[in-house]
Design a protein that fits this description.
The protein has about 425 residues and is α/β, with parallel strands linked by helices. The chain folds into two domains: about 120 residues, Transcription Elongation Factor S-II, Chain A (Up-down Bundle); about 290 residues, Uncharacterised protein PF01937, DUF89, domain 3 (Rossmann fold), CATH 3.40.50. Helices cover about 50% and strands about 10% of the residues. The chain has 18 helices and seven strands. The protein has a seven-stranded mixed beta sheet. The two termini are about 35 Å apart. One of its GO terms (cellular component) is nucleus. This is Sugar phosphate phosphatase. It holds the Pfam family ARMT1-like_dom. InterPro entries: ARMT-1-like_metal-bd_sf (IPR036075), ARMT1 (IPR039763), ARMT1-like_metal-bd (IPR002791). Its cofactor is Mn(2+); Ni(2+).
Length: about 425
């Protein structure tokens, strides 16, 4: 682990995230208390104490312990821990066990501290950070939505503009993934400049660009359903929703399934609460395009041209090659999709099993049998797992940028059309 990005993540980034939770909750305790009719002082103290204790466990390489709350996934997590213990000969620990599992386990332990509450059971320890990320991104939100509104009008008049517009919104969707609070340790990482102006500068940083493959696939068949497995709240969610709106208005599909997390996850991942809050906030912005789409998107949810779904599998420790076994209903639902877009670094890691594949290994090979439907991953690289590169490309990029694998400045639009 010491020669990978896993080591600095466990050693530095995770303790910072836990410390920030405790600090934020203590600093805003009066504001939090005012949101409840009953006294939540003891529950707030308990959450802060649990996060501080967990931080100490991480820093001192303690072993993972079973969860003790009553959430419906608790036994699944505990069975996974038991199996890992039997497989490794001792309980998993922070610096010696699989990074993907331990990082996911940390966020589930954070949620455990909330699940044990009576009054604060629905509380989001990352809520304030996510809300700030949204409010700091209002300017680029207005720009992208205005461009979307203008694009809709143009493609009504000239359908030949659809391919170029598709690629633009796909790239906005890709680079929206730079805004990830779990990578910045919860520090401000909002999109503040015009994302459209940045697209040209970032074009050389797209290491794999299968946008033509995806577009040809969508145009060559009468697509009904497209799925988007969401990643971060804030500007990334806005970019995802704009892409979803474009797909519908361009006639590339008739229904969009949006997949959110079941509870607060990896600091900034989208929950249903975040999704609803975002639409509510958009409705309060005095801007012609923003207020228009806030209304349109509420209507899309009402008429089911957008369907928001939440499944516990997205917040379990399994990688996606195990979905058919552990979440057969979700897998069978995804099989009905004409294209699944997976957003972000964690989805990418789970697609590839978080294994250290050679950079030149094909994406299709690394999916290890996970072929529910044609899929495409939109991911800026924030961990040292990356595949599908031509021979020598990794060395070229490393010569330009030493931290290219982990700083979020390099991206992939990587598709696999194979299905079972």
């Amino acid at each position: 682990m010491a020669n990978s990005f896993a080591y600095p993540t466990i050693k530095e980034r995770l303790p910072v995230i836990l410390a920030k939770i405790a600090d934020t909750l203590y600093r805003t305790r009066d504001k939090i208390k005012s949101q409840y009719q009953e006294d939540v002082s003891e529950e707030l103290k308990s959450i802060i104490g649990s996060c501080s204790k967990l931080r100490n466990e991480v820093q001192t390489n303690k072993v993972a312990v079973p969860l003790q709350d009553s959430r419906n996934d608790t036994q699944v997590w505990n069975r996974y821990l038991q199996a890992a213990t039997e497989r490794e000969g001792s309980p998993p620990s922070w610096f010696k066990s699989a990074w993907l599992y331990m990082e996911c386990y940390m966020y589930r332990r954070i949620q455990e501290s909330v699940e044990k509450c009576n009054i604060m059971k629905e509380f989001d320890v990352f809520g304030e950070q996510k809300e700030k990320s949204f409010t700091d991104s209002v300017y680029p939100t207005e720009i992208v939505m205005m461009h979307l509104l203008e694009t809709q009008q143009k493609i009504k008049e000239n359908a030949e503009l659809v391919p170029e517009a598709f690629k633009l919104f796909l790239k906005v969707c890709l680079w929206g993934n730079k805004c990830d609070l779990s990578i910045s340790g919860g520090e401000d990482n909002a999109q503040k400049s015009s994302p459209l102006e940045q697209l040209g500068k970032l074009e050389p940083n797209i290491l794999i660009n299968d946008s033509n493959v995806v577009l040809n696939h969508l145009c060559s068949r009468n697509c009904k359903r497209i799925d988007i497995v969401l990643d971060n709240a804030g500007f990334e969610l806005i970019s995802d929703l704009c892409f979803a709106e474009f797909l519908l208005s361009a006639g590339l599909c008739s229904t969009i399934y949006l997949h959110a997390k079941a509870f607060p996850w990896f600091v900034s991942d989208v929950t249903k609460k975040d999704f609803d809050w975002t639409l509510q906030m958009l409705g309060q912005i005095n801007h012609i395009a923003v207020s228009n789409f806030a209304q349109v998107w509420k209507e899309r949810l009402n008429n089911s041209s957008w369907i928001l779904q939440v499944d516990d599998f997205w917040t379990l420790p399994y990688d996606y090659s195990q979905m058919e076994t552990y979440a057969p209903d979700l897998y069978q639902s995804l099989q009905k999709s004409d294209m699944i877009f997976f957003k972000g670094d964690l989805n990418y890691r789970k697609l590839l099993g978080d294994l250290r594949w050679p950079f030149t290994t094909s994406f299709e090979t690394c999916l290890r049998g996970f072929y529910p439907a044609p899929l495409c991953v939109l991911r800026t690289s924030k961990s040292d797992v990356l595949v599908g590169l031509p021979e020598g490309r990794d060395e070229e990029v490393k010569a330009q940028d030493e931290d290219w694998l982990v700083n979020g400045n390099w991206g992939v639009i990587n598709a696999c059309l194979k299905t079972k």
